[in-house]
Amino acid sequence: MIYLVGSNLEFDGVKTLVLNEIKFNKFSVNLAEFETLVLTSKNSVNALRFNQISPTDLQIYSIGEGTSHAASEFGFAQIYTAKNAHGNDFAAEIAPFIKGKKTLFLRALETASSVGEILRKSGVNLTQIIAYENVFKPLNEEQKPPKNSAIIFTSPSAVRNFTRNFGWDESYKAVSIGLTTAKELEAFASPIVSAQQNINACVSLAKTLL
């Protein structure tokens, strides 16, 4: 059986385990005061919507296609989708484009990468707002995946929430959406990292493991 952790998307033949919920923080910001906006998750876009902040004509730097799609749907038009979907590599890629520019970074409370630190050290005029946080949401023990399951993890927090809830069985096969998530798994598993940083690719990879 294949299990998906860290996303509420559903796929045929895949059981989705929702072990967290996103809590959006209340904040106020005038986007017109900034030249660029850095997005590492569609949750950042949803945080703007939650706070009823309207899009403006500023340049968006997005970590991946999913986040770019969310930004476009929200109303942003100038969107650069990075070639690198891994946190620190993403920051290193976009830093030369936004050096010296007044930039807003909407981030999570806890992050596994150092995007903000890398951008600041690269000379970006950076303002960071903690826009949301991942809150642990426990599941019943009956929902624990059986032995030999393939388990897809879409973020480091998904790994932490899963092991906090269910522990880890050595027979599990771990699929990671990216390098940062894989690093979280390496203490107790040998994860296989998807060549593409999207959930569809992870599901296809997981199906080859069963």
UniProtKB/TrEMBL annotation:
Enzyme type, top EC level: lyase
Highest taxon of source: Bacteria
Keyword Cell inner membrane: no
Domain Tetrapyrrole biosynthesis uroporphyrinogen III synthase as annotated: residue spans: 30-203
UniProt catalytic activity: hydroxymethylbilane = uroporphyrinogen III + H2O
EC numbers on record: 4.2.1.75
Keywords associated with the record: Lyase, Porphyrin biosynthesis
One Pfam family recorded for the sequence: HEM4
GO biological process: protoporphyrinogen IX biosynthetic process; uroporphyrinogen III biosynthetic process
Biochemical pathway: Porphyrin-containing compound metabolism; protoporphyrin-IX biosynthesis; coproporphyrinogen-III from 5-aminolevulinate: step 3/4
Gene Ontology molecular functions: uroporphyrinogen-III synthase activity
SUPFAM superfamilies per the UniProt record, alphabetical: HemD-like (SSF69618)
InterPro entries: 4pyrrol_syn_uPrphyn_synt_sf, 4pyrrol_synth_uPrphyn_synth, UROS/Hem4
Function: Catalyzes cyclization of the linear tetrapyrrole, hydroxymethylbilane, to the macrocyclic uroporphyrinogen III.
Membership in a protein family: Belongs to the uroporphyrinogen-III synthase family.
PANTHER family: UROPORPHYRINOGEN-III SYNTHASE, CHLOROPLASTIC
Protein name as annotated: Uroporphyrinogen-III synthase
Species of the source: Campylobacter showae CSUNSWCD
